Amino acid sequence: MPFRAEDVAKLFALDGEPMIAVPFGNGHINDTFFVETSRARKYILQRVNGTIFKDMYGLMNNIILVTAHIRQKVAESGGDPLRECLTVVESKNGEAFVNLGSDFWRCYVYIDNAITMQTAETPELFRAAGKAFGIFQNQLSDFDAAKLVDTIPNFHNTPNRYKNFMKAYEADACDLAKTAREEILFVREHADLCSLLTDKLESGELPLRVTHNDTKINNVMLDRATGNPLAVVDLDTVMPGLSAYDFGDSIRSGATYAAEDEPDLAKVKFETDLFDKYAEGFISECASAFSKEEILSLYTGSVLMTFECGMRFLTDYLEGSKYFKVHYPEHNLVRCRTQFELVKQMLGKKDELEAIVLKYWQK
Length: 363
Hints:
It contains twelve helices and ten strands. It is α+β, with helices and mostly antiparallel strands.
């Protein structure tokens, strides 16, 4: 029998007794509840998906280390740590989470007078998202990322993703390779993209940083009154990585008005002005911590994260669409085509896009 959120809330060191615990938000991975106590204190209670996140101790330790560092930075700058950073609420036993059978539960202080947006409906909102993740990078620029564990191993290991693609292609277990010849050829012709960033990490040309790995605008809390970014949330995938991963994934998903599964490639257009807006917001907050090499890697990351995502869609298609949810048999193939179309357009704008990131770095 599942545990009631109201009963679980009582296991945490809340200020007052929990009076309500109601479903909150529309996340697809964890179950989230809004809790209010008898002392009018507000909290977020979450049941974490243990199928996806198998190392709860490592995951929560990552979050505690990162939020402690951010909290100190916010306090030093005269900000409000309770509004500008996630605050973990311990259990009554002094633990970072509660384990109930196969369920893991955790609790955060609710960030009041703040909103989130599901999509960047205007260029200025996209710029605000860039600013939020730029602040996140700057706050953690002096944090030793090696202290963190990989909550999802090999998440952005693109050479490994390519190996998985080749296994799926060569096995062709579902006899689908013949329906994706053009897309398979595209991946194989651009295989050299896969190691561009990992090679520079290994050589020391790019530094290991704390990366968020889910840089959608709905993971940015905005001040209700001003619209300015307050805090970055959903830190489950915080891991060691490259800043280009976070920048690139935002560009992949946000620098086009086309849907991820737009079947008409004529409608899939990479929007340079949106790239410019995000770059302005992001780089304005972390330029001082970045070298020229790392700034240029932001363009590379944009291409690579889009290519990697398309390759993952194609791999899943060849394997019978077992990972990503699909609504029709060719859904993953359509998704991969939109990603590859964006890659082609970004590769064609290399000089222009690199000039944009350099422009904001040199200001």
